[in-house]
């Protein structure tokens, strides 16, 4: 039996195996962890697919796991001063996660779907700040930034396309430049493996009352293309189509990703990766009124599968293409060079009928059929977006000694370019009829919508960023120190096509970080860190009271805590942090208008103090456990509105906690059976800075049942059946409300049945 299989057989083991394989003979091994202590490796590990089902013991990534594409060095996460969580491929598949947000639901400090269900984007927040989707341009794949853009030029990825998900918590400006202070979510796509393997599955998913169903077929094949293994390839593909959580909304996704890896030297590789994704059908996103969701109307609430728009005017059509090159050349054990580059193209068509205000408290005589508390006015929009961009990162990694201290030095430069257009038209208001009954919505028709559009927003932007960075990871016996810094230059050139005005926002910033970890023999590892972030504030200067471009938003974080690694099976981390964000824009308290809106002043400051616990364990009786807990106090510390100082920042739950259990049965009559589930708790929060929209807490339950047919009957090796259910009780809950006409429901009940075959 191989060493990697002996220890646990999970994604963490694969990462550990890669590290052991790359260790030089002079690398002494840490007997406590089984890993080398010198850190002399070739660079970020390329995750490999898991083995056969019989090899899978756990689904937990531990402190020995690596987030190479995210940290830019092959360093176990327990040795990093930055808190990092990893969701492995096995964990994604075990829960049959339909979205990226769902895959992160059992991660400390992460709120999945903070804006409710939305099949257009992968919306998540980390430590109270947006980390993707519409809320932030913090979108990273394989360590490279995705194109920024307007409302219609955002990406989304299917979990089946991913090998793992890395969550870097806290500011990451020293490595990645302009990022949100809460953290970065990096998606790691599947790459070719030398081992010949594959999987194919058919699944069907039902929603809420199980009246809407969607089917999916997915395939993944990888292995050698030459006898020597110098050339390997992989093909990943999926197709799904059918109903969604929202009635009368169908959606489809078609994805294909071929990749090739050429091993042109013993420790040097070149990977070419292409991805194409086509999204068709409609959108699950919709504004909901506070009356009827957050508050009862006549003792009733809108169903969480209700469609209050116009099905015939619900369109979401997106083409998403990525082409990447990932080159790594190891000259010797001391020097490695990498060049990663990717081109991304995106175009989108979006149509929707959404609310225009809260549920009507009184009915005007002009609204035929109106019922107070049940009728709501609406508006209809059409959005079109196109984006293309290039991201490039060139790195030099070196290993040197200065006396007893070993240095892992990383220096690099990266470049980012995006050219995007954002168009939005508004349908003539006279054609958009109110919805008469929010509790029993009936279509009012969309006749004439397409021929009665008027321009609302037409914007064209070119964004550029160039940065140079340096990092030194020092190792002295069991002490690990990380010091790094970065200089960025950013420029955003925006043209308003409607008023023919152009505004340019130049930004530059130096960010740095420092931290340390000490690895005790007993598995304890206390750590501390300080890190900075910055984000250009790209807004029309005409919206500012002084008419000048806004300064970049800056942030910093202090964090300290302790981690514990027991063997290869238990990893627990507990820490406290304080994040401060400055230069936030807030409305002018004097009410001075800039055009048609209130002017903005850049004096806001927010502070988040939190405690975070996350543990992952493999227990001796074939049980894997994941537990998390987060306490957050997110407050406004400075504002132009004096009455809001001390209020809670919006969309930052005070408490979050979760527990997930996976129990496998390896012996006896029930051999091959796996059962488990989890519970997720999200505490109270506020949807607005005035703290008038209080969002209640909610608790959700998940469960699953799996049967490894091959484990019980070797003749059927590789065959597996599974049944997953999320939000078992179909609990209707409000994820947030940003205004009385902007409330959003979270994911209702979802039942997924899957037939899978691996080889």
Mean pLDDT: 88
Briefly note the CATH topology name: Maltoporin, Chain A
CATH architectural designation = Beta Barrel
Shape: globular
Report the span from N to C terminus.
19 Å
Structural class: mainly beta
CA-based gyration radius: 26 Å
CATH superfamily: TonB-dependent receptor, beta-barrel domain
% residues in beta strands: over 45%
Number of strands: 36
Please indicate the count of domains: 1
In this structure, how is the largest beta sheet organized?
Answer: 22 strands, antiparallel, barrel
Report helical residue fraction: under 10%
Detail the poorly predicted runs: 1-57
Structure description:
Mean pLDDT is 88; it is low at 1-57. With 759 residues, the protein is mainly beta. A hairpin with a 3-residue loop joins strand 22 and strand 23. It has one domain: Maltoporin, Chain A. It has a 22-stranded antiparallel β-barrel. Strands 1-7-8-5-6 form a 5-stranded mixed beta sheet. The protein contains 7 helices and 36 strands. The longest helix has 12 residues, at 11-22.
